Amino acid sequence: MEKQKVDFSSVKKLIVKVVSSNVTIMGSDPLETYISYTGRQPDLELKDDVLTITLKENNLFNVFDFGFKSSNGEIIIAAPYELMELSLNGVSSDVEVKTIKVNNLSLRTVSGDLSIDDVYSKQCQIKTVSGDVTISSSRLEKAVFTSVSGDLLVKGLNCDNYEWILSTASGDLTVETAGIPDLRLSMRTASGDLTTNIGYTREGRDYIFGDGKMKITVSSASGDVCIKSTNRAERTENIEKKILKLVASGKLSYEQAKQILDELI
């Protein structure tokens, strides 16, 4: 990959526009910020305190060729750990955002999956057409999710005084937690169902888990909701399976795997 150092010292807002290219945006030391890429070189424009990074397909007809996603390359953006605002528009692109803190986060994708890992945001807006969204170990205080058919998977939900609104035509919501979440779930669905292995109480159309500290409102035509708590035994078993796969693929030695498992138990 080609690598280019980028000065973010005066940047408060980052705008990323990609077509037919996969993109990763990750937090980095402010002195070690850069972009790396394969394929075409991205265009960078710094105006006042706004940095715009653009990478587009030469032939837009290729993006929607018979509904298959084509990739024009890959771009990795190492931005400062903290930003005031981050906005991304992706078409036919898989997007990953991780280890970053941003006051205002806006992500819009068409025909691409979206992954959010270890992200903190006060205001978050996510819009997708057909891609799936996975959120892991992130704290999104106020979030609005809008999707046509993509599913939303939330892992390691940290329940606080947060408020999420999810609107989808047919996508499902799956929330995985350790223990009982403090969650108030309000469902406004025509035919969607709730499945859970956690006890709850009812207040009208709301399902109350724990003390109901966090509020999630789901509006959907047919999407289902699953709230699942994994106990320690289940989590340990899943980790063990992943470690064994790493050993089988040669990425971990037997001694390393044994040490990890001993510490886990």
Describe the protein's architecture and organization.
The protein has a domain at 232-265. Strand 5 and strand 6 form a beta hairpin. The protein is built from 2 helices and 21 strands. Helix 1 packs antiparallel against helix 2 (254-264). The chain has helices at residues 232-248, 254-264, and strands at 2-5, 13-19, 22-28, 34-39, 43-47, 50-55, 73-80, 82-91, 95-110, 114-128, 133-136, 139-147, 152-155, 163-168, 173-177, 183-189, 194-196, 201-203, 206-209, 214-220, 225-229. Residues 13-229 form the DUF4097 domain. InterPro entries: Toastrack_DUF4097 (IPR025164). This is DUF4097 domain-containing protein.
Major pleated sheet:
21 strands, mixed
Q: What distance separates the N and C termini?
A: 40 Å
- The gross shape turns out to be globular
Counted by DSSP, the helix tally is 2
* Fraction of residues in helix: 10-25%
Main structural class: mainly beta
Order of helices and strands: EEEEEEEEEEEEEEEEEEEEEHH
Rounded Rg: 20 Å
Question: What is the structure about, briefly put?
Answer:
Helix content is 11%, strand content 53%. It has helices spanning 232-248, 254-264; strands at 2-5, 13-19, 22-28, 34-39, 43-47, 50-55, 73-80, 82-91, 95-110, 114-128, 133-136, 139-147, 152-155, 163-168, 173-177, 183-189, 194-196, 201-203, 206-209, 214-220, 225-229.
List keywords for this structure.
21 strands; mainly beta; single chain; 21-stranded mixed β-sheet; 265 residues
Topology:
Layout: E1 2-5, E2 13-19, E3 22-28, E4 34-39, E5 43-47, E6 50-55, E7 73-80, E8 82-91, E9 95-110, E10 114-128, E11 133-136, E12 139-147, E13 152-155, E14 163-168, E15 173-177, E16 183-189, E17 194-196, E18 201-203, E19 206-209, E20 214-220, E21 225-229, H1 232-248, H2 254-264
Parallel strand pairs: 2-6, 2-8, 3-7, 3-9, 8-9, 9-10, 10-11, 10-12, 11-13, 12-14, 13-15, 14-20, 15-21, 16-20, 17-21
Antiparallel strand pairs: 1-4, 4-7, 5-6, 16-19, 18-19
